[in-house]
Amino acid sequence: MAVLCDTLLTRAEANVSLLLRNALLVGAAHIERYLDYARLAVYNNHLLSEALALFAVGALLPDIGVARGWRDLGRAILDEESLQQFYPDGAYIQQSHNYQRIALYDLLWACLFARSMGDRPSSPWLEAIDRSITFLVAHQNPEDGRLPNYGSNDGGMPGIFSTCDFADFRPVLQTANVLVNDKRLYEPGPWDEMVAWFLGPAALDTPLAPPRRRSVSFTHTGYHVLRGRDQRSFATFRCGTLLDRFSQIDMLHLDVWWRGQNVLVDAGSYLYNDRPEWHQHFMRTGCHNTLTIDGLDQMLHFRQFKVLYRTHARLLQFDESAHWMACAGEHYGYQRHPGGCVQTRTIVFLKDDLWVVVDHVTGTGRHTMQLQWLGGDFPYAFEAGASRLTLDTEAGPFFAQVLDPEGRPIAGDVVAGQDRPPRGWLSRYYGEKVAVPSLAVAAERDLPATFVSVLSGGRTPEVAIDRADWTFGLDDRQLTFQLADGRVSALACTF
Fold first, then answer.
1. Using CA atoms, how far apart are residues 375 and 274, in angstroms rounded to an integer?
2. Residue pair 454/400 in contact by the 8 Å Cβ criterion
3. How many domains does the chain have?
4. Cβ neighbourhood burial of 412 (10 Å; 0-12, 13-18, 19+)
5. Domain range spanning residue 226?
6. Out of 115, 162, 299, 413, which could bridge 307 as a Cys pair, Cβ 3.0 to 4.6 Å?
7. 369 lies in the same domain as 235
8. Is residue 210 domain-resident?
9. What pTM, to 2 d.p., does this model score?
10. In this predicted model, what pLDDT tens digit does every residue of 372-381 receive, in sequence order?
11. In what order do the strands lie in the sheet with 380-383?
């Protein structure tokens, strides 16, 4: 009986092995047949994943000639796309933090399959991984491993190798840094599960080299991080000419984190295939923390995953001192419309609790403008008379208010969870959305027009205005600058 059982088990294993082998061959042949579609239409993580599949089949079936050809083809594509898709400053072609994580998974898998053959990972893969680590860590909240909810996010993750939350980037960044730099970024924790799965338990003994996150400007693609002395207080600013079509319509969007709390947020993606108005809402300008002019978008949302008239933008300033930062940029997405409008945004950051944002619109004629600040998932209150939104966070209250050039509050409203039209929604996980407060002020103005947003944590600052001179008092500090024609100058901080 034992001999019979062993024989049956051996035959079953052989049958499974044959089925698996045939499935790999059929799948790889299908990918090769339709590879040009990925090269022409979805030359992003889709193409990387298909190249990885070809490379993996070749690594798993080295005794089959056609599979060896797929291995070489897959490797050549991975080499080329590592250079093309990962920009020189570390940003990714899809303008999405989550899609960049998917692409990192593809390259990590490729490195493992190369090692399984006794081969070395290609230099372009390792360099792309290293650039990505620098870029993503710069945007990271050190308290919980999250990044801004930036760009398209369909919940993709090619393998779950830890018990960490989906939004926590520490597992993939820890694994990538151990692989490329032989150092751990983070203290021991559940994110180390992925390191052990990919690189073996001995990899957990690599030395610790924690990142020191600072303010940084990724000028090639236009991502800018304004980091406080407390690394948990920072803002991320999107300002740079769009280099490819994979993007939400969100130029000059500002994401704000205060004491580890994501107080002003990017709404995410929610669903690609719900009613069209939902997909459009999460993708378009009005959903983001920036200005919408005449109800139009900075780019044309032509169809579900395609935009036309890629936005051009330019960084004007990125200065930092021990106590404050100033960053400014402008975009030209509205110049094609009547009036030739240009939006300029200046951000003044008094470390670590106050952001003053000046939005200035130039052009000709009279226009309707709407400015939104989308709050995080916190209890909130709205003072209609002062047009002030207050978020009740775990770190304390956070305030948002919009003023005119004379320092008077601009009338606005707060809406959370509105369906028609959609407004006041946050989607951190694909297919899920929660109601959050959307502070919006709308005004019809002859150009030029200026809006001053005061964003502060802990308490509201004392604001004093004497013609062009603005003064903000916060605790024992005082921020002063001159504001004329929408331009900030003579910036100073005193104690």
1. 24
2. yes
3. 2
4. buried
5. 217-494
6. 299
7. yes
8. no
9. 0.95
10. 999 999 999 9
11. 313-320, 324-331, 342-350, 354-362, 449-457, 396-403, 388-393, 380-383
